[in-house]
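hey
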């Protein structure tokens, strides 16, 4: 582990400034005069490796975000990365020396590559080029970035970024599977317009998304979810009426998918059961695609036993009692469509006699009396927590990127501020990890 207190003499590189990489003591009025002192050691440290990709510029935003959150960041640039962003800019933003050279006489007098790999709480590669991922997966160490990845004893998070063909190439996918098996965590990539002009997966995760994964990983080790089996439901369900029509809702799956991703980032084994959405499958999760509520229930029951279930899907409450075999005609004599209730997936998981998950978390999408209705829902369903959100049209929650939730458990209500769905997912994953840690201590 990192030594609890870093002395000035322990800092062979760059500056040792209050709140900097080698100062683990938060600056307070009491310690300003003696910033390298004994005391609380809250400052978390990230070693950010920037590799050679067009998305390297986004790492500049990531550095700023990390600093805003009080996280110290030290940067390593691959030689290729220096073609995209300059060490001068990166150094100015990080407030620390920037490292690019494995064979640096000054740095290597103190075995700099080993020290760099050990003096952080977390190593992040963003953007992670196809090339660096390939090197890391195969244990190559022919430059500073790849040597650090081989020498580190700290958790590693990679944010891949590349052209869609490079991303989909079996070699890249093979390398990522190897890295995942080695315990390397991954965030993104996302789908969208790529710098090369093509469309598809390969775009680096947004800085806020990477930040959320970093924050989740920097939580105490007691909040890790390594090997914890989790089930997440996401998206809407579609209940067919005839071969071309269905009953559905506006759920985008953004919140559920972000939760699955955040749980993966904490090391959980995640099965995501999702209705039809435009969201890409989260990497390193097992994803089951379904259409109807009945299919979702069957997939969930088949996934049991799990330790944690998070039911974020907007399951249609009803389905048509009869589905027409042929497209219904406008001229047909339709009097009404009879609806029957769909199965209650959250209720079924919460009440499971056999294999009830240790923690069952439901979502309540409400349009009025949000907290009151959600409290009633928690009791009626028998789940442990309910995450209540207001999905009235004017909130823009359904389909939007942000959410404002109230977390309701036996102890009461926590009102979380409005934040991106990714941030909320990270916070929720950390809360789940902490709960699971307590439950295993109690058991
Ligand atoms: C303009 C340009 C853009 C590039 N963008 C990417 C990219 O987004 N992702 C990637 O994996 N490689 C990209 N490459 C290729 C890498 O820079 C190349 O594989 C390099 O060797 C990576 O070195 P590194 O892994 O040591 O950083 C790009 C190359 C050029 C010339």
């Amino acid at each position: 582990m990192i030594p609890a207190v870093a002395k000035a003499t322990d800092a062979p590189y760059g500056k040792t400034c209050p709140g900097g990489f080698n100062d683990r003591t938060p600056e307070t009025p009491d310690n300003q005069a003696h910033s390298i002192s004994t005391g609380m050691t809250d400052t978390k440290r990230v070693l950010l490796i920037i590799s050679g990709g067009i998305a390297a510029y986004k790492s500049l935003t990531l550095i700023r975000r990390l600093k805003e959150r009080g996280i110290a960041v030290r940067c390593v640039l691959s030689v290729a990365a220096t073609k995209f962003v300059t060490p001068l800019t990166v150094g100015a933003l990080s407030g620390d020396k920037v490292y690019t050279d494995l064979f640096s006489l000054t740095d290597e007098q103190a075995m700099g590559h080993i020290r760099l790999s050990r003096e952080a709480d977390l190593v992040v590669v963003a953007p992670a080029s196809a090339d660096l991922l390939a090197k890391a997966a195969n244990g190559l160490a022919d430059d500073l970035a790849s040597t650090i990845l081989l020498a580190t004893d700290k958790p590693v998070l990679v944010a891949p970024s590349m052209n869609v063909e490079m991303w989909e190439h079996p070699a890249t996918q093979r390398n990522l599977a190897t890295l995942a098996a080695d315990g390397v965590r991954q965030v993104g990539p996302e789908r969208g317009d790529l710098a090369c002009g093509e469309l598809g997966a390969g775009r680096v995760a947004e800085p806020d998304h990477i930040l959320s994964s970093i924050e989740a990983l920097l939580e105490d080790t007691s909040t890790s979810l390594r090997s914890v089996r989790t089930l997440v439901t996401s998206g809407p369900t579609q209940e067919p009426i005839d071969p071309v029509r269905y009953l559905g809702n506006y759920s985008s799956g953004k919140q559920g998918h972000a939760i699955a991703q955040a749980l993966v980032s904490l090391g959980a084994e995640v099965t995501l059961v999702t209705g039809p959405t435009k969201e890409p499958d989260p990497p390193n999760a097992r994803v089951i695609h379904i259409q109807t509520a009945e299919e979702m229930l069957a997939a969930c029951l088949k996934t049991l036993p799990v330790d944690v279930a998070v039911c974020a899907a907007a399951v249609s409450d009803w389905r048509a009692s009869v589905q027409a075999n042929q497209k219904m005609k406008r001229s047909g004599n339709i009097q009404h469509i009879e609806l029957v209730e769909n199965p209650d997936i959250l209720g079924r998981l919460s009440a499971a006699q056999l294999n009830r998950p240790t923690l069952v978390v439901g979502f309540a999408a409400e349009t009025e009396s949000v907290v009151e209705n959600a409290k009633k829902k928690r009791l009626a369903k028998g789940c442990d927590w309910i995450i209540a959100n207001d999905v009235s049209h004017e909130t823009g929650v359904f389909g939007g990127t942000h959410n404002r939730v109230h977390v309701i458990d036996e102890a009461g209500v926590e009102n979380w501020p409005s934040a991106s769905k990714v941030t909320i997912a990270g916070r929720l994953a950390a809360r789940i990890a902490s709960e699971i840690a307590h439950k295993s201590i109690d058991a």
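The mean pLDDT is 85. The chain has two domains: 44-218, 222-442.
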